[in-house]
Here is the input.
Amino acid sequence: MSDLTQVEVLWLEKRIENRVRFGRIVKELMVDRHRRVLSFAPGSIFGFVRWTSSDFGTVISRIDILRAVAPGQRCSTVPYVKPGGEILLRLSGWLKVERVLQIIDAIETLGIDPADVAPDHWQHIHNRLSVNESPRPYTKARHQAWLHRRRVMR
Here is the structure.
């Protein structure tokens, strides 16, 4: 059994799109032209976007920001993710998903990899999105404070 968290990404034109928005992939397996399995090391953070539609429009829009777990660690089950992950953020509905994607873009604009962002940032975004407030922006200073805290915690 592998200690990696595996994510199945799938693309069926105009029907299903499961994709990893960010994260450090350590292994990739091409299953067929529509499916790949991406693997993440324990402790790594990644963004997983799922979208499904029918003949009548979009059925599901969802984003999950997850932390890959080590073998034996407790985790939540998430479709297409084996064995599951620690959920840092889980939102559904296109407006919320789109807003989180914009936040990810803003973080990347700062030159910061979203996979390195403080986990508590992801855990608290939904509080502000649900009341239509703008979440506190992630800044370079906040990121430096997180990196310092992470070094001290080790």
Notes: Helices lie at 94-109, 119-129, 140-153. DSSP finds three helices and eight strands in the chain.
